[in-house]
Amino acid sequence: MSSLKNKTVHGIMWSAIDNFSSQGITFIVGIILARLLSPEEFGLIGMLTIFIAVSESFINSGFSQALIRKKDCSETDYSTVFYFNLAAGILFFLILFTFSPLIGRFFNEPQLKSILRVLSLVLIIDSLTIIQRTTLTKRVDFKLQTKISVIAAITSGIIGIAMAYSGYGVWSLIFKTLSQRMVNSLLLWFWNRWRPLLVFSIQSFKELFSFGSKLLLSGLIDTAYRNIYYLVIGKYFSASELGYYTRAQNFKDLPSSNLNGIMSRVTYPVLAQMQDDPVKLKSGYKKMIKSIMLISMVLMAGLAAVAEPMIITLIGEKWRPSIIYLQLLTFVGMMYPLHSLNLNMLQVQGRSDLFLRLEIIKKIIAIPTIIIGVLFGIKVMILGMWVNTLIAYYLNSYWSGKMINYPMSEQINDILPGFMIAVAMGALVMLSGRVIPLTYFLKLIIQLIIGGVFALFLCEIFKPEAYLELRQIAQNTIFKRIHG
What distances in angstroms separate CA 409 from CA 167, 338, 412, 414, 451, one per listed residue? Predict the structure, then answer.
């Protein structure tokens, strides 16, 4: 158990470094690009997000999760999935290339034709990369992935900024994305050294697809739902409004999606190793939920409180409409890690069938939110997302909790201390922003200091279990670094 805990902590640490360093670089690059480009240019890319995302779900088809869950993967398994991924990547590139004129006409933006034809090259690049990442993730090895991600983020950032500064407009965003995926893929192939065999096993394909196919459908439904808002806003509003919304999403995603990605990548393979020991599985799961949600809630409450000075300071007054979108989206982002952990439990237990049914139910329930958005505007649509995320949590936690005797009421009791600390901290930070008569830059710095100090103060006073666990992990890690 100690070895597994150390492996988990080490994996979380490097996964966190990977996500927050590479995404932090990407975020900084995005800030610079937001100052050089217009909301309309970001909106054009946002219109195409759903088509790329859905295609990527088909290319993966749930095979990565199936391989990670399988305890005795063979080289034949890896090679079979690799060739499927590559064939699917080429196929969906050709599909998007062919239908790009129709997509341009749908949004009444003719330039989307050429943009999509170039941008969809990422599908082929990613198809070559999936198994490389899967082999590293299965070993809970994120150190190499971190190194590669940082190099790719820096390289692509330089390319994107140089092109934007030279007046290439929306194409700077496209080539930034392409170069980041390309560098990532090349370095994974160079340093990981995994190579496919010249074999494709029908038996292996069927075995993995029996589990992965349900995750494919679930992933498609979830991906379409998460990105349908880009399509709706792009179709029924304007490229500028979509640009404001996507920029708010980017700010929200830096803490929420990165934290979610970190925990999904690490906790799934770790929990999969405990799947045959229900007591150990529940104990590990409880610790993960309490710790992750404390971090998530404090980060997102703080983000909502500093939204105005942060956006004005970092990307300028022209992005002011993004502020309210960001503040509303933080509640949705706060729940992402909780959803992810509950859904990971269904996968660990091998219930991809239940995973699929839940995704279908949740997305049917979410349809009114999309209609409301078209009729009443983006702000009301985001409020509808709040309702959807609470319903989704109830459904996810009910079934995952039932499997390991960890009901929703117990989960809520475990995360409630963190929620109260986050609310108190967020309220103080927002209030301080109202009374501090300084520039937005100085106000942002002071609010961040107040938020961090007050959150730590409350944690030290009330000592929630999640904080004590995180503090112990941090102390042990620092001690090993000093004396190791």
Answer: 55, 14, 5, 9, 29
Per-residue pLDDT of the chain (484 residues; tens, 9 = 90+): 445 555 555 556 656 665 567 777 888 898 999 999 999 999 999 899 889 988 988 887 777 777 877 777 888 888 998 999 999 999 999 999 999 999 999 999 999 999 999 999 999 999 999 898 888 877 766 678 888 888 999 999 999 999 999 999 999 999 999 999 999 999 999 998 889 999 999 988 888 887 767 777 777 777 777 788 888 888 888 889 999 999 998 898 877 766 666 665 555 666 666 666 677 777 777 887 888 888 889 999 999 999 999 999 999 999 999 999 999 999 888 888 887 777 777 776 667 677 778 878 887 888 888 888 888 888 988 888 888 888 888 888 888 778 778 888 888 998 899 999 999 999 999 999 888 888 999 999 999 999 999 999 999 998 888 888 777 766 766 666 666 5
Handedness of CA 138, 88, 128, 253 (dihedral sign): negative
Q: Longest C-alpha distance within the chain, in Å?
A: 68
Q: Nearest CA to 258 among 25, 414, 426, 7? A: 25
C-beta separation of 397 from 342 below 8 A: yes
C-alpha dist (Å) from residue 228 to 54, 157, 174, 370 = 10, 27, 21, 8
CB atoms within 10 A of CB 176: 25
H-state helical runs in 274-306: 278-305
405 φ/ψ angles, rounded to the nearest 5 degrees: 60, 50
